[in-house]
Amino acid sequence: MKKPVKVVVTGAAGQIGYSLLFRIGAGDMLGMDQPVDLCMLERNTESSMKAAKGVKMELDDCAFPLLNSITSTPDLKKAFKDAQIALLVGARPRTKDMNRSDLLNANAQIFIEQGRAINNYADRNIKVLVVGNPANTNAYIARKCAPDINPKNFTAMMRLDHNRSLTQLAQKTGCKVTDIEKFCVWGNHGNTMYPDITNTLIAGKKAEDLIPTDWYLDYFIPTVASRGSAIIEARGHSSAASAANAAIDHIHDWVLGTGDKWQTMAVPSNGEYGIPEGLCFGMPVTCNNGDYEVVKGLELTDFEREHILQNVKALEAERAVVDELIAK
Ligand code: NDP
């Protein structure tokens, strides 16, 4: 049997956490031969700790063979000590009285603290996935606060946007999601995100030849970008099981590989495709041997450039706000 991998999940008692933990316990994230030491980091409030205790009781009751241990703590040092994978899900939701900069500020404090704890205590090869919104900028903050860890290891989740897009494309063309290759969502997990079919093949044919341009521009792009709001409208709560599934997919592929198949991950830019260095940006990647690589050599069209630029502007504006907070 392999040595257990220590996985930290923050906000584990929230709604995404409630779907995520059981999938991790069942082996969906790291494979059926990989035991896990699961640690839930919760806020130090009576209600959070009580909720985490309830989740732990249910995990115990599943008797998952791969769950070597389950702990919950509000202590950052205990949680991140030797952690090899961190799923940073817990974040402050936007309330009615908050504007966007209040939200950035409240979340910046959370990710500054967690970034520092990762820097001080985690395994040097830790893989970090930020789910809590604003996910791209929160991942940027955590990375900036962890200067001793490879910057590459701080990623944010755009896989839900990717998965949502695959189903829209499959339903439109009558194909299977597995027939779709070379698709990605560029940019920010926000309303400027850009689901891009320029290079996409569906059952071996060019997607642009199969899909009417007006459907792509007027339906597909806005539908993917506003899917989160549509779920809230329909369900009365934000996406939870599908977000947890996307987090599982993201880490699964990063650890176990995709071969030459593209996936979308938000990763720190090294200046690829004119994206300013350091922004945590959704890009097409392939994963092999526990590492990811941004797909190289794409010739961007003017349409792609224009949409990528909108996302650059959105993320640069957020970066300007949080850089001041990190420097304090
Ligand atoms: P919930 O509000 O249900 O859960 C959030 C949990 O995080 C709560 O248990 C909360 O505790 C906890 N929490 C808050 N701050 C901290 C902290 N500093 N340390 C540890 N735990 C903390 O939210 P969801 O599970 O629905 O969503 C979580 C995040 O994921 C949100 O930011 C949401 O916007 C984001 N999201 C991202 C998606 C993406 O594609 N990137 C998709 C869907 C959601 P308490 O109750 O005590 O405050």
UniProtKB/TrEMBL annotation:
UniProt xrefs under Pfam families: Ldh_1_C, Ldh_1_N
Gene3D superfamilies: Lactate dehydrogenase/glycoside hydrolase, family 4, C-terminal (3.90.110.10), NAD(P)-binding Rossmann-like Domain (3.40.50.720)
Reactions listed under catalytic activity: (S)-malate + NAD(+) = oxaloacetate + NADH + H(+)
Binding-site residues, NAD(+): 11-17, 107, 114, 131-133
Keyword terms of this UniProt record: NAD, Oxidoreductase, Tricarboxylic acid cycle
Documented EC number(s): 1.1.1.37
Binding locations of substrate: 94, 100, 133, 164
Top-level EC class: oxidoreductase
Any Gene Ontology biological process: malate metabolic process
Active site (UniProt): 189 (proton acceptor)
Residues annotated as domain Lactate/malate dehydrogenase C-terminal: 159-318
GO molecular function, one term: L-malate dehydrogenase (NAD+) activity
Residues covered by the Lactate/malate dehydrogenase N-terminal domain: 5-154
Annotated NCBIfam families: MalateDH-SF1 (TIGR01759), PRK05442.1 (NF003916)
Family: Belongs to the LDH/MDH superfamily. MDH type 2 family.
Alphabetized HAMAP family for the sequence: Malate_dehydrog_2
Known function: Catalyzes the reversible oxidation of malate to oxaloacetate.
Protein name: Malate dehydrogenase
Species of the source: Turicimonas muris
Lineage, top ranks: Bacteria, Pseudomonadati, Pseudomonadota, Betaproteobacteria, Burkholderiales
